[in-house]
Write the structure tokens for this entry.
Amino acid sequence: MNVLEVKNLSKKFENIEVIKDVSFSVKEGETLVILGPSGSGKSTLLRCINNLEKIDSGNIIINEKEMIKEYKNNKLVYNDKEILNKINLDTGMVFQDFNLFPHLSVKENITISLINVLKMSKEEANKKADEVLEKMDLKEKENSYPCDLSGGQKQRVSIARVLAINPKIICMDEPTSALDPELVGEVLKTIKQLSKENRTMIIVTHEIKFAEEVADRVIFMDGGIIVEEGKPEEVIKRPQKPRTKEFLKRYINFEVNDLKELDIEENEPREVIEFFKEISDIPRESGNEERIRDYLVNFAKERNLEYYTDKYFNVIIRKEASEGFENEEILGFQAHTDMICEKIEGSTHDFSKDPIKLYQDGDFITANGTTLGADNGIGVAYMLAILDSNKIKGPKIECIFTTQEETTMIGAKEIDESQIKCRKMISLDNGKQGKMVISSANCMEWFGEIKTEKIDLLENDLTLFELTYSNFIGGHSGGNIGDIKRGNPIKLGIEVIENIDEIYIQSLEGGSRVNVIPRDFKICFWARENEYGKMKEKVNKQIRFYGEDVNIKLNRSDIKLGRENNEKDIENELYENNDINIKENNKQKEIRKVYSKNITKKIINFVNSFVNGAIEYDDNNNVVLSANFAAAKCLENSVRFEYSLRANNLKLRDKYLENLRKIEKENDIKISWEQELKGIEPDFENELVKKCSIIYKEIFDEEMELKISQGVVEGGFFKYKIEDLEYVCIGPNTFDVHSPKERVSIKSMQVTWEYIKKIIFS
Amino acid sequence: MNLEQTINVAKILFSGIGVSLQIFVLTFIFSIPLGIIVAVLRNSKCKIISYLMKGYILLIRGTPIMLQIIVVYFCPYYMFRVSYDRFAAIIIAFVINYAAYFSEIFRSGINSIPDGQKEAAYTLGFNKVQTFFLIILPQVVKIILPSMSNEVISLLKTTSLAQIIGVTEMFALAQKQASYNFSIIPLVLAGGYYLILVFFVSILFNKAEKKLEYYS
């Protein structure tokens, strides 16, 4: 039987709808838990049920009595007082802040309603009070006053007070959120006990674990509606709606996935997964690879394998050829030992000392709220499995474990190439099965500066404009540069003002790091009022192209540098000791500080002449040359630009560089910092590429896709040092690397493992 | 004045204390319930009632009590040519006056009780009257005791104004004796009596405050 039925309930507070058409029911003996972020309307819902708030539409039916009698002229009419009183006695409310009556003793708090409302005799009331106090384990406190009780005891008294009147439904509005953490337990225990006695309860709480234990059913509310409803193990453990997941993750730091610990016994390739688990126990944050190095060295020693290690914690381990393969060419594998360390908000994981526990979520191995380190721990695990195995027959194997790939690439940069014996190297640092990276970009990065000095703007008939771009997609300048919809706000901003003659830039700033596509840009400049129309037209065109998600704004400021201002200046000087005037005056002066027309022209010209984005493509539509105007910023005596260039083809690069040098010269750009990261030029014809492609086709009957990447890989440095090196990148499918959602497909690991074994054997 | 005369005057004044205390006690008894009623009506959701009460409080607090006493006593005479008992007039004037002051004290006390108390009482099934008398008022008393004691002490001394419509209380006697004996000693004696009375009233309030200290 439904003890409570809420039908299409809506409730507004001053035109803000806090509950929107909510319907649900509660059966007798059921414990319903309502979860949701603050402001989701859950407490208001409870208050409506207790008639502490008047509802705007809908109805509430408690124990077959309707709260709303009828609708008259679209207005709802509450039922007669008598019925409302009965409804009232059928519902009890436990408040967040207890609301005990401070002037009455614990016992009187309970008996006062029994005597005055239920008209019990004093003896009966006392008996009843004793009974409920006994149950709440508060007998010895019966003569205390609320001010002498702890928060937990107060809340238990308030529960006892409600129990004594024996309502059909007990509502609890965040019964533990006003309590000190150490007192929460006793109250939750009490509520659990009640739940077991088959009391009908509706509980609004933030204690997810408790909700899971006590609830028969869970409702998740957000924004005034019921987002999700169901058994606790469904809503809490396997939420379907993104909002519920978000809430469970963000607000309470509770892991939502139905994670179970990874069972090594049950999954293949067992040998690889075993090693992956072993290295996951070793913290291996970038720059902190000593422990994993020691582990690798031990691994080699235990197996009597030849090894080398250096001060960068790089390790090279070699395994002799199997019988019959002695004359085969040595085959190299490579992976990096370090990992990106990211965790979800609120996670207590300490990457410097805590092991990463592995969990299984369907086909995926994942960590719990942290990066997994599959990038590139899976590669390390493969190499360990290869070195460890006696079954894999093949040539001499050389495994190269490098460090700090995620940050400085110092491992690959500084490794002693004379220690690298192989000339065919397979990197396992690729996250896409079926794709093989055969070329990486040569990446050059620069900070360039134009020396500047600000001058005072003398023209008085100009207007100050502010042009801002924000919310662009951005992304990595290696992986995402090919996508024209990402745009470059710095270029776009300059494009708007490029043709204005009378212009003085006052300030500009945009972008973040040199390898990131900029997401925002802001430029302030003085120009004639009548330029507004033309600029607005250009801005509107940009808005049309980049869509509603980005923010582009062109504002005219009210500040006019007319005569009035000059008068004001004089006035200010008259009252020189007036702080506000001085401030105002300084502000005025600050605003008048601009770059000269000449400097302004140079800034505009340089940004404008810089060819940005994907520039050249190969026949398969891979980007092979791209440039990124990453950032622009005003410094004290200069304007600094950060930009980069990525090229898979050095001839194309050199042509571009020639042009870049020219425009740098034209605009007096001084290079203040630069670095070059080496790349690998595409070579579709080398033996390793061919061999790997053929074997892939043989096993999977599918063409291996050869990928030309605009990213930088460690192979670039090896290739730079060892000219005749052949280098490819392969690996199993990984997803969302560098984020706490990082996961690797077990099936793909198995496929890749078969593939690797085949490459070694052939 | 010699000692004998002084003792004599003291005796005469003592006989006047009775009237003073009568005014004090009667005003106290009637003005407190009236004050509570005014406080509750002042909080009323009905705007007319609330404004009426505001007007009443403004009028009473905004004019001298002496004028109020005169108006209360003489008005019926000038309007309807009826006169009535002076003592009754004093009581009426004082009750009307002090109810206004008390009501503001009560109102501040009532408003300082958290809404949660009313809500808890409502969910436990109390009706409004029960909620007020069983839950709200007992807590209000504790809160307002200090400011009540102030007002009550002031009432005790204000009883001396009764003489302006010819009610002979203690201070009126003192003034008479002063001019009769050509001495201010009777006035000083009257002051002494007020002091003693206030002392006892203060003790009573302190006791009450102590008694309510059992909770916080």
